[in-house]
């Protein structure tokens, strides 16, 4: 097996300027311009993700980034106040805020989903204590 020295994830967007503004201004993450028109986004707890331009981008139908929070209600309220719209999914019971409650049912975290300007799906989630 290889010895890995570092790892990072990445995903595409069609509009780097819109992505920069969204991840920096709406989500409050640290965004750095990189070479070749790419962005790096610092992730809480360490690590980072590379965002690269792809004009013919088609968003994934799955979550590409999960952001863990201590208080999901506050996080969702703050995101909505910054203009983020929560997504609703068939097959998931979601409350008025768009939060699927897994902790009370012992079925995973409480989680809510939203999309970036490119349609990439992101979640905020709260794990049980």
TrEMBL record:
Gene3D superfamilies the UniProt entry points to: 2,3-Dihydroxybiphenyl 1,2-Dioxygenase, domain 1
Coiled coil: none
InterPro entries noted in UniProt: Glyas_Bleomycin-R_OHBP_Dase, Glyas_Fos-R_dOase_dom, VOC_core
Superkingdom: Bacteria
Domain (VOC): residue spans on this chain: 5-127
Pfam families: Glyoxalase
Identification of the protein by name: VOC family protein
Protein source organism: Microcella humidisoli
Lineage: Bacteria, Bacillati, Actinomycetota, Actinomycetes, Micrococcales
